[in-house]
């Protein structure tokens, strides 16, 4: 592609007691916080390094924007207010021309090859989605972003989120799906992956 590619990652400031609250109910606040911090740093390290790609980190809460914790090479932005759909719409509208791919930060299986596959898909399709095992999705990408979708009437955090999102695209939109990955919301998700439930090693 001649235009720059834009990779967007949604992240929450890894402060104990404010991240992965559903996971913390079964794992404990400290262990859940350490899990998320390690997961976030590992993800950002794995996804950095493509020269043709610009890297954007949309963080929450807004007060974390100027915190000296974010790694070099990532342009930081504050997430906007609203539900997940409003925040994704805003993020996909910001970085400029060229195809964009957006992922969350709680999917341990994401590798650089998945992002490369998503951008390749955008040479053929208008939209690419990475389905999650729970019926949601771990990635969304768009080839043309003059009018990103508003993501209205989507049943977030349910098994219908992916199908609702696809149904909301304008008629004629071409969509390509990537492989199914597992996000981590609860202790059971860690157990399925075979990860230890105690405090991770640093």
Radius of gyration: 16 Å
Strand order of the largest sheet: 3-2-1-4-6-5-7
Number of helices: 6
Protein structure class: alpha/beta
The stretches of 5 or more residues where confidence is low (pLDDT under 50) are: 196-202
The largest pleated sheet is described as:
7 strands, mixed
**Proportion of residues in extended strands:** 15-25%
Order of helices and strands: EHHEEHEHEEHEH
Distance between the termini: 39 Å
Q: In total, how many beta strands? A: 7
Shape: globular
Name the helicity range.
25-40%
- Averaged pLDDT, please? 86
Please describe what this structure looks like.
- The chain is an alpha/beta fold and about 200 residues long.
- It is built from 6 helices and 7 strands.
- It has helices spanning about 20-25, 30-45, 85-95, 110-120, 160-165, 185-195, and strands at about 5-10, 55-60, 75-80, 100-105, 125-130, 135-140, 175.
- Strands 3-2-1-4-6-5-7 form a 7-stranded mixed beta sheet, sandwiched between helices.
- Helix 1 crosses helix 2 (about 30-45).
- The radius of gyration is 16 Å and the shape is globular.
- Residues about 195-200 have low confidence and may be disordered.
